[in-house]
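Supplementary notes for students who missed Thursday's class. We covered one full example, reproduced here. Read the sequence, then the structure, then the short commentary at the end.
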Amino acid sequence: MHVYSRSSLFIRALTTHLFIVLSTTIHMNSLRQLTSKANLLLASAARSSSSSSSFSTQPTVFDKIVQFTIIDKLGRRHTIRGLEGQTIVDVLESRRDTFGDDALALGPEGHGTYEAHIKLPNELLATYPPPQGHDNDFLYTVADQSDLDKHSRLASKVVLTQEMNGAPIALGSLAPWLGQV
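Structure (token representation):
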């Protein structure tokens, strides 16, 4: 049987107490570090989630689609979709099978560029001012002079915008907003 002196018991109790305090302190520091790391991860996740939600508010291709109606020279209506930034002549070129080659004329730049005479409705006239200078001269070359009026524009000068959604655009001499169709 071991006989311990009072001082050795005190030292032993003190050592045990210090061991418990130190291990608790180490454990608490580890917990603090883990909590700190968890908070950093949560903050990082919140930032990435907010940045991904801001990403989802960016315009998509669907947001840039412009749907409008082209009335061909026979009065048939074609619902067409294009993208903001395209010109009407780009849309006509991509649908030559629908509108035929006579919807387009060779552009003033020469081979490989096309042009067309179109008519805009009243609500778009302010957005696309009448052709001036060389454009006006070329419009007289592309279209019959008797077909030209304040609605006449060159298709290469009309760029698709969201404002054009649902708008009727006529090829050639027709003006459906005046009851011609």
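Commentary. Residues 1-58 form one domain. The mean pLDDT is 78. If anything here is unclear, bring it to office hours.
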